[in-house]
Amino acid sequence: MLTGCRWFLLLASFSACDGISLIMSSHQNLNESRELQPHLQPFFDLASSTRNVTTPVGQTAFLHCTVEQLGDKSVSWMRRRDLHILTAGSLAYTSDQRFQVVREEGEGGDGAERWTLVLRFAQPRDSGVYECQVSSEPKISLAFQLTVQEPRASILGASEVHVRLGSGLRLRCVVGQAPHALATLRWYRADAGGGSVGGSGGGSGSGSEMLVKPANDLLIDARWSAPDGLVSTLTIPRVMPRHQGNYSCRSSAASRDTPPARVYVHVLTGEHPAAMQHGSGATGGASSFHMARPLILLILLLILLTHPSLT
């Protein structure tokens, strides 16, 4: 009986020692893990961060900054031009309400976080460098280049078009912008006499230019056409003298400093045939003087031959 008690006490002492050793080992591993944690520095996931972003004017721009192993550090966005802190964490530090930040956790619980700077109604003045910063020690940052493009319109064909009185005229204006861009193409007209074309009316314009509107003698059709983009076609089925003048085309999303596309329309009478436009396309040609030049030379030669005294 005494021998059994001794064996029981011996086993109990070994079990207690093993338990104490296990607890001490777990506590030591926890301390080592806590000591190593500060050495896991945040870093940027460059593969998922597009650093050159281009957006049309008036649209929303997104700058995606993905950070790995962020831990308890914070992310902020700064505009490099004026060193203005736009956001810190989830808070905005600017009176410009177009800016905001959106935080998303990575898929699969890998510890990655994506901090997106959102800029609504982007304008050309917003173009520049923006920095995604992490408050680690030392601080790390990643630069993003934002380019806000203005849609520039262009009129197909020559800068001057000659069209015969009573014939048809068609002008095509194009602007290469994405189909989702919230912009339209507008036609304006001005002539030397300051008069207005049929279908023009009051409206915005530069100087004496008037906004051209559809009417019985003037049609405007706008549609998307790949790969040109937005195409606006101005059609005059029967050209009259009052249709002569300077026509311009610009995107409604362009700033006032952006020059419009221009074309001057000459309306020609029967006595002055020149380079004319027929149907739907503009064609170049010689002027009436150049067209009659061989005939004039022939007449002069005949006069000299029949009247030798003139030589």
Notable traits:
22 strands, 6-stranded mixed beta sheet, 311 residues, 17% helix, alpha+beta, single chain, 2 helices
Order of strands, widest sheet: 2-10-9-4-5-6
Task: Tell me roughly what share of residues is in helical segments.
Answer: 10-25%
Query: What count of helical segments does DSSP give?
Result: 2
Question: For the CA atoms, what is the radius of gyration?
Answer: 38 Å
What fraction strand? Answer: 35-45%
From the spread of the alpha carbons, the general shape counts as elongated
Task: Write the H/E string, N to C.
Answer: HEEEEEEEEEEEEEEEEEEEEEEH
Instruction: Label the structural class.
Output: alpha+beta
Would you identify the regions where 5 or more consecutive residues have pLDDT less than 50?
Answer: 5-17, 19-24, 26-38, 193-206, 273-290
Task: Compute the number of strand runs.
Answer: 22
End-to-end separation in angstroms reads 161 Å
Mean pLDDT: 77
The major sheet is characterized as:
6 strands, mixed
Short description:
With 311 residues, this protein is of the alpha+beta class. 17% of the residues lie in helices and 38% in strands. It is elongated.
What does this structure look like?
The protein is an alpha+beta fold and 311 residues long. The chain is 17% helix and 38% strand. The protein is built from two helices and 22 strands. The chain has helices at residues 2-36, 288-306; strands at 43-44, 52-56, 61-68, 75-79, 84-88, 91-92, 99-105, 113-119, 128-134, 140-149, 154-155, 160-164, 169-175, 185-190, 200-201, 210-212, 219-225, 229-236, 245-251, 261-268, 277-278, 281-282. The chain has a six-stranded mixed beta sheet, with no helix packed on it. Strand 7 and strand 8 (113-119) form a beta hairpin. The longest helix is centred in the N-terminal third of the chain and has 35 residues, at 2-36.
